[in-house]
Amino acid sequence: MKLTWKQIEPFLKSPDPKARVVLIYGPDNGLMRERAKIIGQTITPDMDDPFNVVTLTADILAEDPARLSDEANALSMMGGARLIRIEGGTDKLTALVKEYLGNPNNENLVVIEAGELGTRSSLRQACEKAKNAAALPCYVEDERGMSNLIREMLSTAGYRVDADALHYFAANIMGDRRRARAEIEKLILYMGASENNDDKFVRMKDVQASTGDIGTANLDELIYAVAGNNPKQAMASYNRLIGEGVAEIVILRTIQNHFRRLHFTNAKIFMGDTIDQAVKSLQPPIFFKVEQAFKAQVSKWKGARLDIVLSKLAELEAQTKQTGTPVNTLCAQAILSISAMR
After folding, report:
1. For the purposes of burial, counting CB atoms within 10 Å of the CB of 210, is it exposed (0-12), middle (13-18) or buried (19 or more)?
2. Phi/psi of residue 114, each to 5°?
3. Could you give the CA distance from residue 13 to residue 112 in angstroms, rounded to a whole number?
4. Phi, psi at residue 307, to the nearest 5°?
């Protein structure tokens, strides 16, 4: 079965018992692992339980295909259902998963953790079409989704958050749920240690003080180098981000978001706003350190040039969702191409 975004949260809380194999996939590795853990804990609360949890890999199953059926049909020594985790899921597992779904165990659960799988992925298609399996996507959350997570975690800790601080924080920690949670937890610890939080209200200065640049200095450096026609700086920033483990899709969507904001600002100016009024209307707000650079790029990027860039980025995002696409190479080529446009 194919899960829509509206079905994901209910499924996590109470997985459909008909689904004996659950495929969890997508570019947000942290979110994928978090959801795999939530579903796994519906079988056993202790994910390190040696009797009720077994972890396999795609490589192990390639060498010993019978291992999946053996583990999935084994009885727990301590009673209850068992969880079979498969890490590094790829299309190489498709035939094995299809065979297992022909006669699955009705008590034990198989959870497959995978990275990005395009719409043509045979493993994804198999789990989406099977009535006794489920495919659960984990795409990089947008600012709205990240804002909800921030509000939820801060509220649980007893804090409220200023709107500007929320927008700024959400925009800069998108990309990996695990990293995002770590940054939010760090903010909560900072607020607890601060002497000036009697009102339990998180402000912009608190976010900046607790997290510094939250890894965005390099992202800002990249997008302003791309839009500032500096190919050498753009590629240096891109390579540094990749080296730090930032996903290509996060980089791509950050660049897209920057050019969309340039487009929106130009539209506001066309409707009669001054550039200052147009820039101040942006949400989340432009960080003051790059405001002048952003205004300069508003004048540079407009009309047909801006449309070409947005079209190129949209096409690239579609390509990244196809199995076997050399995402790193395509992103690097796009960054070079756009940053060299005059």
Report:
1. buried
2. -135, 165
3. 18
4. -65, -40
Q: Could you tell me if 107 and 52 lie in one domain? A: yes
CATH code: domain of residue 32: 3.40.50.300
Separation CA 117–CA 131 (nearest Å): 20
The total of structural domains in the chain comes to 3
State pTM to two decimals. 0.57
Digit-coded pLDDT (tens) for 68-118 = 999 999 988 777 899 999 999 999 999 999 999 999 999 999 999 998 888
- Measured between alpha carbons, how far is 294 from 287 in angstroms, rounded to an integer? 10
User: Residue 227: how many CA atoms within 13 Å on its side-chain side?
Assistant: 28
pLDDT digits (tens, 9 = 90+) for 257-309: 899 999 999 999 999 999 999 998 887 678 777 889 999 999 999 888 899 99
Q: Are 114 and 25 in contact (CB under 8 A)?
A: yes
Q: Which of 137, 156, 175 is the last residue of a domain?
A: 137
> How many residues are listed for the chain in this entry?
342
